[in-house]
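Example record

The entry below shows one chain as it appears in the dataset: sequence first, then structure tokens.
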Amino acid sequence: MASRTGWAQRWRERRRVQIDGIEGDAVPSRFRPEHQGRFSRGWWGLLRTILAVLLALTGALAMVAGISLQWLQDSVVDRDGFAKVSEELAADQSLQEELVATALDNASRSVQQQDLGGIPFGGSILDIVDQRVASGIQEYAGTEQYTDDWNQVVLTTHELNLENAGEGEGQGAPEDLEIGTGPVVDSIEHHIEDRIGFGVDLDLRSQESLGGADGIVVVGDSHTGPTFDTIVDATRAAPYLLWGGVVAMGLALLLGRHREWAVAAAGAGLIVGVLYARSQADSLTTSVTSSPNLQDVGRTVVERIFEILLTGLDQALTPYLWAGVAALVVGLIAAAARTLWHWGADDGWEDAHTPGDGRRRRVVEV
């Protein structure tokens, strides 16, 4: 029993770390009690850092998703928000030129089909008619009625595609994109008939490029219905994603031992989230505008609407993209600085314990 007690006492003495007076053959530092405690704290700190990184990354992605969905709710799903598109459509000069060219071509064919009592339709008469048609459309494009008609076009298009979207099976959005061009076509037809005179009765709605009999251009094979249903359903979760992401990033900063890694992860999440949202918007635009059934004015209107919406999305997300870049850079710089500082501290500890020195000194880690 005495020998066993003496062995335990000697073992404890070898484990004990003295501030001064330990000989060069002292036990390795990894067996010292305070170093074992530091080892445990290191693993716990690493676990905290990993959890903080995951929380920050997930929170940043959720926040970008919430911001994107809230923008969709305000600018696309909401009727009044979508109506703002009409102001830019009415002021678009390229759209006016496309509309004039298409309407002129269709109106000329319609006029040539009129019964003029045996008078041959061609030559100078055709030139006069074309001039009056063009001037009538241009005059119409400069009136308040033109702006009001485009506003009605936008609202009708919103009603056709989004009014019943996301309401479950049997309801939902139509399978393909539908554009209500009727108000503009009717006004063009009225102005052309007034300008030409001599009792011409046009029927521009018979032209499929201007919307057909019901004044609705259907973009075949665009398959926008399921996308609109998903958007409407997803926008309901926008506030939860936004504030849930903010809370997750706040917890990451509180939990993480090395918070610079949490900051860098949040920045990376913002960048990835913004780029992914933009790529999805581009994919939807491409799928719609690549339809072979989209032609003439219908194509111009659709391309312009998506261009306006994509510009608005960029304006909403760009600040978060740059915030992500800044957070990523700051976090990585801080992490690199901490790593270099620790390497310098380790080198200083080794220099303080040279082999020829019979004593060891305590190194205080900051």
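Notes for this example: Residues 17-28, 35-40, 346-366 have pLDDT under 50 and may be disordered. The radius of gyration is 36 Å.
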